[in-house]
Amino acid sequence: xxxxxxxxxxxxxxxxxxxxxxxxxxxxxxxxxxxxxxxxxxxxxxxxxxxxxxxxxxxxxxxxxxxxxxxxxxxxxxxxxxxxxxxxxxxxxxxxxxxxxxxxxxxxxxxxxxxxxxxxxxxxxxxxxxxxxxxxxxxxxxxxxxxxxxxxxxxxxxxxxxxxxxxxxxxxxxxxxxxxxxxxxxxxx
Length: 189
Fold this sequence. Notes:
The structure is a single chain. The protein is an alpha/beta fold. The chain has one domain. It is built from 3 helices and 12 strands. It has helices at residues 40-51, 57-80, 133-139; strands at 4-7, 18-19, 32-35, 84-88, 94-97, 102-105, 113-121, 124-126, 145-153, 159-165, 171-178, 181-186. Strands 2-1-3-4-12-11-10-8 form an 8-stranded mixed β-sheet, covered by helices on one side. It is globular, with a radius of gyration of 17 Å.
């Protein structure tokens, strides 16, 4: 049986695979990785309700920066070694702690350079990629997105666009070749 780690993404009926973003468990343990960016504000609210107000915004930002660097490093190595990572993208969030002028966004873990824009929409075009045909057929009426990729750079610049905005020029989902592996991006929900 394959070992699955699903960071911040609940798979119905498969709760044993779930891993909190703040966990110190390595991604190297997994054969299959499913990853979703955290909601900074939701995570801060949850931690404060559990641990009280001693959890500060700056403290969480500093902790997340360490985790992002570790996730980025592990993802890069995992992809280079031929595994696939599925990213279910959520709303792009930026946060600045004005007291310490510390900035944070919830996509710093990405092992590529991408400019992500926070915009909602529901008009999605499908590029007939065979591996996503059943998904599109079954869920098309219910799909929407909370952000898109305005700019994407990968070292070998190979990305197969699967889902795009109705205008046709913004990426909502695709398969990015990275090393020997693939980074499968999915912004549609």
